[in-house]
From TrEMBL:
SMART domains: WD40. SUPFAM superfamilies: EF-hand (SSF47473), Quinoprotein alcohol dehydrogenase-like (SSF50998), WD40 repeat-like (SSF50978). Involved in spermatozoa motility. May also regulate cilium motility through its role in the assembly of the axonemal radial spokes. Residues 202-215 have a biased composition (Polar residues). Residues 1-315 are annotated as: Disordered. Residues 247-259 have a biased composition (Low complexity). GO terms for cellular component: axoneme; sperm flagellum. It is found in: Cell projection, Cilium, Flagellum; Cytoplasm, Cytoskeleton, Cilium axoneme. Keywords: Cell projection, Cilium, Cytoplasm, Cytoskeleton, Flagellum, Repeat, WD repeat. Residues 1-10, 44-67, 87-100, 153-175, 217-246, 288-315 have a biased composition (Basic and acidic residues). The lineage of its organism: Eukaryota, Metazoa, Chordata, Craniata, Vertebrata. It comes from Lynx pardinus (Iberian lynx). Gene3D superfamilies: EF-hand, YVTN repeat-like/Quinoprotein amine dehydrogenase. This is Cilia- and flagella-associated protein 251.
Length: 1231
């Protein structure tokens, strides 16, 4: 099982509510619930409602109809027939509004019908006289209520109470009679979005959904009419957004007032009723035409008609949907089983070039920041993290909605993504794929205050601005705009907080104002050129821009401490039909402060700046200073994020500072999070001005990590000179040390006892530190190298320490006794390699307990040193072996003792894993390693917890951007490996915990370290599912077991048996399942693999000595299954490619007049005869004779297939010769 994944984005509730067919399920003999019952339930709920509903949430009472109009409606209802049930008659007789209200009432009933499908549980009443009698009671109660209302406010309240008592009694009678009532609710605006609300359940607290009215305490009818007009206008604007997620209905603020289940259905009914036909995506529903379709038979008929339409079916959201939740359940305990071999459990570090957001602040302090390709939601009080995983590349920008619920992240790189997350649950609710196919990713992103729109700017030479309706099921932007190069690279973007159609962005030299004309699908922009001549003053480089609090201006901050004020000129409404668009002009340059401004934002009634000196200043609308924080002595401010909750009003216990105005009022502002350029994050409590340091992380690349040999400690070293030690089980920072400027940590290693920590630095210095205090253990650090120390290693007895640097030099240090004390001294150094050293490894001699030292370089040399014979300034070399012919090695490690023979495991750039005898250095096995886009760069054997696990071992590896697991022994089975992306920009290092439970990877320039929990049972399950014996290997060839290739391989194998016995022999054939080893290279070449002579010798050794350790016998034959495995493990994983051949020509050839790489004929023949595994003249002539059709028999060592001269040669044979020459040519270029 391989998990190199993009997290699948749940697509929930994608269907348009207008397109959803009605799926109604009712029992025979049941009808809809009485509205009067809901009316009564509502008033019971109002009396117990703990929170006051907002005025915007209230429906406006409409003027009741005249009594004559009610009688006309009753007559219309009688003419329509007795088909209508009791609730239908109630709707006709009890009508108290005009025609519009009649339609609203019918829509509410249909909403109740649809709500029944979504899981709403209500009550139904039976048809017949019983329903009519109850309706007469309700009608009388309503008439009585109208009379009471005319009599005054007190009469209204009395009527309500009386009516409540009467209908409560009626309800009890119905319950006693065993009448089951249900309601259904028509599809609502909320269910049209990707994030649907939970299924509605009708309870007493939800009676507002039954279409009843909320009475306001104002008796001014004109005021009520104006409020109703404003409400209709609001719904008309909302309904114009096709299939939008109604985020306002489920915003965090409104969720505190009422649950999603208690949203007024009449409001939702208005939304559906007012939705334009062309935007709803289906034909408008004629409400009047559907009046007579309310009985069950006609509803089912209507259902079948709608299902016949071409619209997609409704996406139901299960009752336990996490997306629909209104509660913050992010940090609740997750008991789900771990199903992946590697699971991210913690991220150390953060990307300090991106902002930190303050997303929770009431009973918990929760932050949002970025760590490589993962967004991290960190709970400070609980010391817990939730990871938003899904990006294949490093996250380049992020933003968050005003209510702190919706998070948008984007990345840079191939197949870039934009993902929107729900911060309440951590679920990705929408993913935009290939958001920037022409460019390199997203450079800036912004989201509107209500989270309905998203804006992005691409990271490309020609930047593109896109507006996204992310709540729709679309993958294309609503509007785009290409920016000229002259505008510079736009790296900051924000919306107008009060107008979703206005944006501003800026580069270092240019600010751009945008206006989205949605009806025209146009993104107009204004970008006046700004120079020093504009104000006759130095302006400076722009950093960030915001809309002024007065909404008529834009402010742009500069690195000179100035603000550029832009006036927004909007055309008058009378000119709206013209082609004129708003534009901006620079009106003034305000020298606000001396320090360069790095952050510019607004909060409440203040304009806030952060500068390079760590000062945070607050200004009013007139840009007059109100207060500032300058005594904290912070480094340059990178980000400011204010709490969502407004500051508490001052009390006697409050300690707000006074502002700097003449009045000296208390300076009351929200708490905030501060991020600085030195990768430090602070929390500022404004009440009392308390600054708390939350965490400090490395501000530069992290290349060195090491785990303690027997404690849960992790040491992290950064190029900024910081070493931090963590308790990785408790996720607790323990201690750190920062070295002087210029000393960057490149490598770290604990000694086997866990007492010392060796550190190699970028300028060649080597420190030996105390593992628990990080204090120096030597008087002066060793400095015998002028370049970066890339490797540090200790011997098993901690008597020796060896280092390797960038200049291919190995240095050795030894412990000696001086004056009764053990001290470290320099022994010797040797430049033993021609290319970079990729591994430095200590071992133990088999016949003694003395340490042995080996180094492996990309020059393909494995060198062992003789430590016992080495002396001061002289490092003795014991032996040198070449490990590869064409590919270069990347790493090595001691293979665990799974067999009686001790091996060195060496990985190379050709995706191969080789096992070398630790004594003779003979290559004993060549196996196919993990193939995940790049070759293995570092490996470590997973430690075991007990002796019972010694025969079941595992290997952890990293390649360019992934970390993975491999089950040992390595045999080429692809199901024995699993990998996952850990650092898209490149992995710099890897280590494993002492107990084998965790692996850690360092991301280098992404300034992060990731902790991975290892689940071996998941990997074992993948292996068992992959099959046994040869089953996993069949999938590595085209067509598998029954494919053409495998059939041909079988034919060649058995043909080789005939060949070895003689093609023309008349003797009795000896049937066998084996072929002799001498036939092995011919069968390999027949199936398209042309191994070198060295590789053929490696194959022979692998087969001959496969049983030698156990039986003492040599093997001289091979069967078909073993041959198939040898072929798969030795062949190139991607075959011979034209790219590889072209690369050889690039190295060996020259450029002709046409600009092509070519090789002269005489040079080509000379190379074949003298370089690499050079050919003899006879072999070369035989190859070219076959290619030119002069030798149809092929190699003279092969038996003739035709003795007739002039026979056309076999094209496959000629192609084989050509491929052989190309392979030879490639090996020559590599050598």
């Amino acid at each position: 099982m391989v998990k190199i994944s993009l997290e699948k984005t749940p697509q929930r509730g994608m269907s348009d509510a207008g397109e959803d067919p009605l799926e109604e399920t009712e029992e025979d003999g049941e009808t809809e619930m009485e509205e009067e019952e809901d009316y009564n339930s509502y008033y019971r709920e109002v009396e117990s409602m703990p929170q006051k509903l907002k005025e915007d949430d209230l429906l406006v009472w409409r003027q009741p109809r005249e009594e004559g109009e009610q009688e006309e409606e009753e007559e219309e209802g009688e003419e329509e027939g007795e088909e209508k049930d009791g609730v239908e008659e109630k709707w006709e007789k009890g009508e108290e509004g005009g025609k519009d209200w009649e339609e609203e009432e019918r829509v509410e009933e249909e909403e109740e019908e649809q709500g029944e499908e979504g899981g709403g549980v209500g009550e139904k009443e039976k048809k017949g006289e019983e329903g009519e009698e109850e309706w007469e009671k309700e009608e009388g109660a309503e008439e009585k209520g109208e009379e009471e209302e005319e009599g005054g406010e007190g009469g209204k309240e009395e009527a309500v109470r009386e009516k409540t008592e009467e209908e409560a009694a009626a309800a009890r009678e119905e319950v006693a009679a065993g009448v089951q009532e249900e309601t259904t609710v028509k599809p609502q605006e909320i269910t049209k979005s990707k994030i649907g609300l939970e299924k509605l359940t009708l309870t007493d607290s939800q009676s507002i959904m039954s279409g009843t009215f909320l009475k306001t305490h104002s008796g001014d009818e004109s005021k009520r009419a104006s409020e109703h007009s404003e409400t209709n206008e609001l719904f008309r604007d909302l309904s114009s957004q096709r299939r939008f997620l109604d985020l306002e209905q489920i915003s965090s603020e409104e969720l505190q007032i009422s649950s999603p289940d208690s949203q007024p259905s009449s409001k939702l009914g208005q939304k559906i009723h007012q939705m334009p036909q062309d935007e709803s995506g289906q034909e408008g529903i004629d409400l009047e035409a559907e009046k007579g379709e309310r009985i069950q038979d006609k509803r089912l008929s209507n259902l079948s008609e709608e299902k016949g339409k071409e619209f997609q079916p409704k996406t139901e959201i299960p009752e336990d949907s996490l997306v629909a939740t209104s509660e913050d359940i992010l940090f609740q305990k997750d008991d789900r089983a771990n199903v992946y071999p590697l699971t991210l459990t913690w991220s150390f570090g953060w990307n300090s070039s991106l902002p930190v957001y303050y997303i929770r602040d009431e009973n918990q302090r929760v932050l949002l920041y970025v760590c490589a390709h993962t967004a991290v939601i960190y709970n400070v009080f609980n010391n817990s993290q939730h990871h938003l995983q899904g990006h294949p590349n490093v996250i380049s920008c992020l933003c968050i909605s005003e209510d702190r619920r919706w998070i948008a992240t984007a990345d840079k790189g191939p197949n870039c993504l934009i993902i929107i997350w729900d911060s309440f649950t951590g679920i990705p609710v929408h993913t935009i794929f290939d958001s920037c196919p022409e460019g390199n990713g997203i450079g800036a992103i912004a989201i509107t205050g209500d989270a309905k729109y998203l804006a992005t700017i691409s990271d490309a030479e020609i930047q593109k601005v896109c507006i996204w309706r992310w709540t729709l099921a679309v993958e294309t932007p609503a509007c785009t705009l290409d920016l000229p190069k002259e505008y510079g690279f736009q790296n900051y973007l924000t919306f107008n907080p009060t107008n979703n159609k206005e944006l501003v962005s800026n580069s270092k030299t240019q600010a751009i104002y945008y206006l989205w004309c949605e009806e025209r699908d146009i993104l107009a922009h204004s970008a006046p050129h700004l120079t020093e001549k504009t104000f006759n003053k130095l302006v400076g480089k722009l950093t960030q821009s915001v809309f002024h609090l007065n909404l008529t201006q834009i402010l742009s901050a500069t690195m000179e401490g100035k603000l550029v004020v832009w006036d927004i000129y909007r055309p008058p409404s009378s000119a709206s039909a013209s082609l004129d668009f708003p534009h901006i002009k620079p009106c003034k340059l305000v020298h606000l402060q001396k320090e360069g401004i790095t952050v510019l934002t607004t909060v409440d009634s203040y304009i806030v700046t952060g500068d390079i000196r760590g000062n945070i200043k607050f200004y009013d609308r007139t840009l007059s200073i109100v207060n500032w924080y300058s005594h904290f002595k912070l480094s340059s401010i990178r980000t400011l994020s204010f709490s969502k909750t407004p500051a508490a009003p001052p009390t006697e216990k409050s300690n707000y500072p006074p502002d700097c105005t003449l009045k000296g009022d208390l300076f009351i502002v929200r708490n905030l999070i501060i991020g600085t350029s030195d990768a430090t994050v602070y929390h500022l409590t404004t009440d009392g001005t308390k600054l708390e340091k939350l965490f400090v992380e490395p501000k530069d690349a992290i290349c060195a990590i090491s785990c303690h040999p027997y404690q849960p400690l992790l040491a992290i070293g950064s190029l900024c000179g910081m070493i931090k030690v963590w308790d990785y089980e408790k996720k607790k920072y323990l201690f750190s040390r920062v070295f002087e400027k210029g000393l960057g940590i490149q490598s770290l290693t604990y000694n086997p006892e866990g007492v010392l920590l060796g550190a190699g630095f970028t300028e060649g210095t080597v420190y030996i530190l105390d593992a628990m205090s990080l204090e120096n253990q030597i008087p002066e650090p060793f400095k015998y190298s002028r370049t970066s120390v890339t490797h540090v290693s200790f011997s098993h007895d901690s008597q020796y320490m060896a280092t390797a640097d960038v200049r291919f030099t190995v240095s050795v240090y030894v412990v000696v006794v001086r004056n009764g004390h053990r001290v470290w001294e320099y022994l010797a150094r040797l430049r033993s390699h021609r290319k970079s050293i990729c591994s430095l490894l200590f071992g133990v001699h088999l016949d003694s307990n003395e340490p042995r030292l080996l180094s492996l370089g990309k020059d393909r040399l494995l060198i062992e040193y003789n430590l016992l014979k080495s002396s001061k300034d002289h490092l003795e070399v014991l032996d040198i072996h070449r490990t590869d012919q064409g590919n270069y090695p990347t790493c090595m490690v001691w293979y665990p003792p799974l067999t009686r023979e001790l091996f060195l495991l060496i990985c190379n750039s050709g995706y191969k894993v080789k096992l070398f005898n630790s004594t003779t250095k003979m290559c004993r096995k060549t196996l196919l390693g993990p193939v995940y886009g790049s070759s293995i760069e570092q490996v470590q054997i997973l430690p075991v917890k007990s002796t019972l696990e010694l025969q079941k071992r595992y290997m952890v590896f990293i390649n360019r951007d992934k970390v993975g697991l491999q089950i040992l022994p390595v045999d080429g089975n692809p199901h024995k490996t699993s990998a996952i992306i850990c650092h898209p920009s490149g992995v710099a290092g890897m280590t494993v915990s002492y107990d084998g439970c965790y692996a850690f990877t360092a991301g280098g320039h992404d300034r992060s370290v990731v902790q991975w929990e290892i689940n071996l049972s998941a990997l074992e399950a993948a292996v068992s599912l992959g099959g046994e014996d040869l089953t996993p290997f069949y999938g590595l060839v085209a067509g598998g077991r029954e494919g053409k290739f495998y059939r041909e391989l079988e034919d060649y194998f058995y043909y080789s048996q005939l060949r070895s016995q003689g093609i023309d022999t008349m003797e009795t054939r000896k049937v066998s399942e084996h072929i002799c080893l001498s036939e092995l290279p011919f069968v390999m070449r027949a199936v398209g693999f042309y191994p070198s002579e060295e590789k053929i010798e490696d194959m022979f050794n692998e087969i001959r000595f496969s049983e030698y350790v156990d039986t003492g016998k040599l093997i001289d034959k091979i069967n078909l299954p073993d041959f198939f495995k040898v072929y798969l493990n030795h062949r190139p994983p991607f075959g011979n490619t034209m790219r590889g051949i072209q690369h050889s020509f690039d190295i060996l050839g020259f450029t002709n007049s046409k600009g092509e790489k070519v090789i002269r004929r005489e040079d080509f023949l000379k190379l074949l005869l003298t370089k690499g595994e050079h050919m003899t003249e006879e072999e070369m002539c035989d190859c070219f004779a076959t290619l030119f059709g002069l030798n149809p028999e092929g190699w003279k060592s092969e038996p003739a297939t035709s003795s007739i001269k002039g026979t056309v040669p076999d094209p496959a044979l000629a192609c084989s010769r050509s491929s052989l020459i190309c392979r030879r040519l490639k090996r020559i270029s590599l050598s």
